[in-house]
Amino acid sequence: MTRTEYRWLLPSAMADPELPGDRCGRSRRTVRDWAVDLTAFLCAALIGMLTAAAIEADPTTPDSVLFADVVIGALACCALWVRRRWPVGVAVALVLTSAVEPVSAGAMLVALFGVAVHRPFRPVAAVGALALALAPVQPYLRPDPETSFTGATVVGVLLPLLVISWGMVVRSRRQLVLTLRERARRAETEAELRAEQAQRLAREAIAREMHDVLAHRLTLLSVHAGALEFRPDAPTTEVARAAGVIRDSAHEALQDLREIIGVLRSPGESDGDRPQPTLATLESLISESRSAGMKVILDNRVTDPAAVLAATGRTVYRIAQEGLTNARKHAPGAEVTVTVTGARGEGLTVEVCNPAPTEPFEQVPGSGQGLIGLTERAALAGGSLDHGPRPDGGFRIRASLPWPDRP
């Protein structure tokens, strides 16, 4: 694998990741490092001893030269123990030494291999070029009587090339392994983030759905409980009717809560068998509010409510439900108008308006998140929602939703 191919394979931020051995001795040797260094030392020493034995077999070699060869070769092998701290420096020194000292050739090859494994291409190419340039020097200064000058030079060129190529292959493989590990770690991290995001979205969906459904029921409970509190002398029939509404609203709130949690806990995005509110069921919402004592006028100009997409119809229903809930909280006794207009291809418009309250009332506490949730619902449906006070002191909620030509 070439360096260009490797850069294409890796992400831009990891084109040349740092290997554990690239840290120039900043970390302590592990057991594996000691084993590798001992093996490299023994290999270099074995090559040096074989070379020294060949030199000793030549009767023309003086004893002083042989002694110098053995000493220099031993020092060259010992220098390999510091190659992790100064790999390039040790390799350059051994390349220069091996040009005049054959016994240090084994240590020089080991140093070249270490540089190729632990250093980028540029220093490896520089040290390799130096070794190739000095390859003819040793056969010229100390020729082998059994080998020609050309043959010794060729061997002196091929061995460094072979060792450097082997080291670069090892480095490329290690970089690939590190990259795959990093990608696996990033994939695990991204999977955890996606799981956390899914949990957060599920919690938001639960909170939004609970607010939309339960706020309507609980507001009825608050209004009628307040009426019983401030009118203890009300006729028995009115007290009984208010108590019935409270009982029915509490029962329906609990039932809605069970259904919502059951749906949200089910796998996937399916709503299961639970019937969902749509535009066609808007009449039942208005009837429920009227039975609770509200004055509601419904102006539904959509000729075929069943033709509206289920998701769009559910959004219209929730907007109307939230508008009625807010009117019941902040303008009790006021007449609320719910208007739904639109046609296929033109879009749907739902508007909930109420005038200013005409009688004093006790403020029902609220979270203030309902209108925020409605705005988000409308945006998710591809539409928009506006809300705000009217000049007469009332309040208006108006949403525009898409209704495409084709379902």
TrEMBL record:
Gene3D superfamilies linked to this entry: 1.20.5.1930, Histidine kinase-like ATPase, C-terminal domain
Regions annotated as coiled coil: 181-208
Transmembrane segments: 38-57, 64-82, 88-117, 147-169
Domain Histidine kinase/HSP90-like ATPase, first and last residues per copy: 314-403
UniProt-annotated stretches for the region Disordered: 382-407
Record domain DUF7134: where: 32-174
E.C. code: 2.7.13.3
Matching InterPro entries: DUF7134, HATPase_C_sf, HATPase_dom, Sensor_HK_TwoCompSys, Sig_transdc_His_kin_sub3_dim/P
CDD domains, A to Z: HATPase_UhpB-NarQ-NarX-like
Signal transduction histidine kinase subgroup 3 dimerisation and phosphoacceptor domain: residues covered: 203-268
MF terms in GO: kinase activity
Keywords, sorted A to Z: ATP-binding, Coiled coil, Kinase, Membrane, Nucleotide-binding, Phosphoprotein, Transferase, Transmembrane, Transmembrane helix, Two-component regulatory system
Catalytic activity: ATP + protein L-histidine = ADP + protein N-phospho-L-histidine
Superkingdom of source: Bacteria
PANTHER family xrefs: NITRATE/NITRITE SENSOR PROTEIN NARX-RELATED (PTHR24421), NITRATE_NITRITE SENSOR PROTEIN NARQ (PTHR24421:SF10)
Listed name of the protein: histidine kinase
Organism: Streptomyces gelaticus
